[in-house]
Amino acid sequence: MPINTTIFHRTKSHSFVQHIFFHKKKLIPIMEVSMEVEVASSLSSEKLFKLYNNYHTIAPKVDPQSFKSITVIQGDGGVGSIISTVYGDGSTSKHTVDAIDTSNHLISYTYFEADVFKGIIEKTTHHIKFSPSPNGGAIYKRTIIFKCIGDAKLSDEAMNISKETIKSIFKRMESYAIAHPEDF
Q1: d(CA 108, CA 87)
Q2: Do residues 54 and 72 touch, judged by C-beta distance below 8 A?
Q3: Of 29, 36, 30, which Cα lies nearest the Cα of 14?
């Protein structure tokens, strides 16, 4: 019978959870690294939720250099759907939509295939929450859990690039929503 142990580590910018599975006297480590990104917006949480709930149709319009195409290959774009992305550099990824909570403005999805994983990452799970802020706008918060293969680790540089990319894409999406208020 397998025995599971969890070890939690925290640094200044990231959290690490290492799950160690003992099965038939064999040690199999699985490293999880979490990262959070928060961005304040002048838009309401309702508008941001609607914007990101239509990410697969809007992102290629907003940033065609980064996103050549985003295609729903199974389902209707809702929970359980599989979505394929072709990026500007020709790399690809696929993810499943895990949850869409319209009343709490939450979206969750899991990338299970991506060229950028390069044998380091098994999958990443993204949890996005839009919360009202005191100034009438909203806070965009994204938590990403990277499930690394074996004892592979993500560099601080890779984590920082990911954070900056997420913030940059958010700002472009936000600008699109401001320029097209009739859509939101």
Answers
A1: 20
A2: no
A3: 36
Q: For residue 99, give Cα distances in angstroms to 39, 80, 102, 147.
A: 21, 8, 10, 19
In 3D, which of 29, 4, 33, 28 has the Cα closest to residue 16?
Answer: 33
**79's tokens:** 């929970």
C-alpha distances out from residue 33 to 144, 172, 176, Å: 8, 27, 31
Global pTM reads: 0.82
Q: Which residues contact 168 (CB under 8 A, 6 or more apart)?
A: none
Percentage of residues in the chain having pLDDT higher than 70:
84
Would you list the DSSP string of 79-124?
A: TT-EEEEEETTS-EEEEEEEEEETTTTEEEEEEEEEGGGTTTEEEE
pLDDT, one tens digit per residue, over 86-102 is: 999 999 999 999 999 99
**pLDDT on residue 137:** 96
Phi-psi region of 76 (alpha: psi -120 to 50; beta: other; left: phi over 0): alpha
